[in-house]
């Protein structure tokens, strides 16, 4: 079964850190660019970050650049997002997705909730 399963979300205070994981199965993970998306309450999907197949290149939205780090372990079919210096505006449901950017109909997980609040 082709699927993506996110984990690692939770509630954290402003300035805190979280590490999200995304376990991939049912397809050749190492052949695909991978992406993190997020959806804040009442807003549309937003592209956050992407990483090349061999981890050689990473891309970030301006809103998270310098605070978030995307990485992957192709041997374990797992994608990560290290989130530091979290802000209240980072509160959202975070999804991992297959591909370089936000693409309608792309393979996407069920999401993991991140809440940043004091």
In short:
The protein is an all-beta fold and 118 residues long. It has strands at residues 3-7, 10-12, 18-25, 34-39, 45-51, 58-60, 68-73, 78-83, 92-98, 112-116. The strands form two sheets. It has a six-stranded mixed beta sheet with strand order 2-10-9-4-5-6, with no helix packed on it. A four-stranded antiparallel beta sheet has the order 1-3-8-7, with no helix packed on it.
Which key phrases capture this entry?
118 residues, mainly beta, six-stranded mixed sheet, four-stranded antiparallel sheet, 10 strands
Compile the SSE list and pairings:
Elements: E1 3-7, E2 10-12, E3 18-25, E4 34-39, E5 45-51, E6 58-60, E7 68-73, E8 78-83, E9 92-98, E10 112-116
Parallel strand pairs: 2-10
Antiparallel strand pairs: 1-3, 3-8, 4-5, 4-9, 5-6, 7-8, 9-10
Largest sheet: 6 strands, mixed
Number of helices: 0
**Multimeric state of these chains?**
single chain
Helix content: under 10%
Radius of gyration: 13 Å
Alpha carbon gap, first and last residue:
39 Å
The share of residues in extended strands comes to over 45%
Judged by helices, strands and strand pairing, the structural class is mainly beta
- What is the total tally of β strands? 10
- The shape is globular
* Strand order, sheet with most strands: 2-10-9-4-5-6
**Runs with pLDDT <50, length 5+?**
none
What is the average per-residue confidence, as pLDDT, rounded to a whole number? Answer: 96
Order of helices and strands: EEEEEEEEEE
């Amino acid at each position: 079964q082709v699927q993506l399963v996110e984990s690692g979300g939770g509630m954290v205070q402003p300035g805190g850190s979280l590490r999200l994981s995304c376990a991939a199965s049912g397809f050749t993970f190492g052949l695909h660019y991978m992406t993190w998306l997020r959806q804040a309450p009442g807003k549309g999907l937003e592209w956050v970050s992407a990483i090349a197949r061999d981890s050689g290149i990473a891309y970030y939205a301006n809103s998270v650049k310098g605070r978030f780090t995307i990485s992957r372990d192709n041997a374990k079919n797992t994608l990560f997002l290290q989130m530091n210096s979290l802000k209240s505006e980072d509160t959202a449901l975070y999804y991992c997705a297959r591909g370089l950017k936000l693409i309608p109909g792309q393979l996407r997980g069920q999401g993991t909730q991140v809440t940043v609040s004091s």
